[in-house]
Amino acid sequence: MPSVQTIAEEIVAREGGFVNDPADPGGATNYGVTIHTMRRLGLDLDRDGDVDVLDVRALSRAQAVEIFIRHYFTRARIDLLPQALQASVFDMQVNAGANAIKILQRLLAGFQEPVAVDGALGPKTAAAAHRAYEKAGAYLVDAYGIARRDYYLRLADGRPASRKFARTRAGGKGGWIKRAEEFISPRYHLSDAAFQQRTAAWG
Prior knowledge:
Blueprint: H1 4-15, E1 29-30, E2 33-34, H2 35-41, H3 53-58, H4 61-74, H5 83-96, H6 99-109, H7 123-136, H8 138-158, H9 163-166, H10 175-181, H11 192-198
Antiparallel strand pairs: 1-2
């Protein structure tokens, strides 16, 4: 498994640089770190007494990597999971916060390892994940990736403004879907036709 540092650097590369899209609930974002996260952490980088868009712009790639490791991997206790699952859950934790763990917790019930769906990764969820991985191996990793993809699709179903993150203007897979499928074996990727059929109702 790649190091946590390497995984965090890959997440930063995947997230890209500064964006401030009105359709994104995260608001101004740089390297995947939102203005809300920076305010929560008190990151007043220009030391002018507040955390605003200028601070988001000033965030460095190295600072983003450090934030992800400290607050989205270590504090979230991703290290408690089977190593094969860690990269995908870490990536989703950055992208969707506690929903990353809720997705896993809901998934575990399908592997006969039900746990409370509370978004907190504690000993019970970790133990259930290890037992499920012992039974299912790499299929659990694929199943988690598929559940991530389904989460994004459902989000776009219910929020038209978010559909541009799931589907390109040309009708192909958008960034959210490609991101999820990076962690899914190719045989479980949606074909172009299947993706278009799944999203046809979006118009």
